[in-house]
Design goal:
The chain has about 325 residues and is of the alpha/beta class. It is about 25% helix and about 15% strand. The protein binds S-adenosylmethionine.
């Protein structure tokens, strides 16, 4: 008898950058306790203008990017955010989404939808105005909730509610936040605090996935959570099939207890044109010159060069790597 050859597992081929998170501005009107120390922690001196952005967007598409998320900083602080979304939709990206803190969403939800924005994520960590004020260092919850209402009326293809869970702050609010989201047709998602930038100071206040899930277990099926194909790192668990919320679901993003680098196809573009292949390091290179000279082919070349710096997802442990401490999510596009 022949001995069967030992088959080595195939190393997955290196993925191309299929999705990009584009930081329209590094400006933000909040200072969330896990994101930045205060509102005077320094802004970029020079940002891309709309024409340079058009070249950047074309270059991303030419380099293979098909899904785009507009983020920041706070993207709705940019005076041309609606025109920017229109410019994005002139290019045949398959998916165009935006992440916002919703402080300006009341006036902008409908114009953004009209400009062609497909999906929207809103970050709201608590439904308690005093806690919201504390967690955001000065934010007003009422305006944010009016923004959420406007978004639900605007008819986006999908609305998500992102909640960063901080022990001793909002960790007892999970069920209320799930019900708030489900009542409005939104998908609630709970994020572990990642030890990036300011988040490293909250290492002892991370609420791990297992604990988050246990707090709302009575609302959910027992099955293990699953990822949506071709989307980000979130894993989803369906609501109980025998209850009134059947068909709804809850997402978890476990950037600390379970890093998720294998298969990451995400590139980040900062508002000054800097390209970063990974959230957890400041490695990368600039494509500002190429974008400002409206040379999309040269931008695509820079994307490929930046992508060579992508850490090996089989060994790299994302936000738990030491390099993550020096990263500002606000500056590079969260
Ligand atoms: N201003 C927008 C917003 O608030 O959604 C977009 C930018 S913000 C940096 C993007 C997301 O990053 C938000 O959902 C925020 O809560 C999350 N975030 C920032 N720092 C984080 C950290 N240390 N751990 C986990 N999530 C974090």
């Amino acid at each position: 008898m022949y001995a069967l050859p030992i088959l080595k597992p195939h190393r997955a081929p290196r993925v191309d950058p299929r999705s990009a998170r584009v930081s329209l501005t590094d400006l933000c009107d909040l200072a969330c306790i896990y994101c930045r120390p205060h509102k005077r922690d320094g802004y970029l001196e020079r940002r891309l203008g709309l024409e340079a952005w058009r070249s950047m967007l074309r270059g991303l598409f030419e380099a293979g990017v098909r899904r785009l998320r507009v983020t920041g900083g706070e993207p709705l602080l940019h005076p041309q955010v609606v025109a920017f979304v229109r410019a994005v939709r002139e290019i045949p990206f398959e998916d165009v989404a935006l992440t916002t803190n919703a402080t300006r969403l009341e006036a902008l939800a409908a114009p953004l939808r009209d400009a062609g924005l497909m999906r929207l994520n809103v970050s709201v960590d608590t439904l308690d105005p005093a806690r919201f004020f504390r967690m955001t260092r000065g934010g007003r919850l009422a305006a944010v909730l009016r923004g959420v209402d406007a978004a639900t009326r605007a008819g986006f293809d999908e609305l998500k509610l992102n909640v960063v869970v901080v022990r001793g702050e909002n960790d007892h609010e999970l069920e209320d936040l799930v019900r708030f989201a489900w009542d409005r047709g939104m998908i609630p998602r709970f994020l572990e605090v990642m030890p990036i930038g300011e988040g490293q100071n909250l290492r002892d206040r991370v609420v791990p996935y297992g604990e988050m899930r246990a707090r709302i277990a009575h609302l959910l099926e027992e099955a293990p959570p699953v990822k949506d194909p071709d989307r980000g790192p979130a894993k989803y668990t369906p609501a109980r099939a025998d209850g009134p919320d059947a068909g709804k679901r809850v997402g978890f993003i476990t950037g600390t207890s379970d890093t998720f680098c294998g298969g990451c196809d995400r590139l980040r573009v900062a508002s000054d044109g800097h390209l970063r292949p990974c959230l957890a390091t400041n490695d990368g290179l600039s494509a500002r010159h190429e974008a400002e000279h409206e040379d999309s082919a040269a931008v695509a070349e820079r994307v490929h060069e930046a992508w060579k710096q992508k850490p090996d997802g089989d060994t790299w442990k994302g936000c738990t790597e030491a390099t993550a401490r020096d990263v500002s999510i606000r500056k590079i596009g969260g």
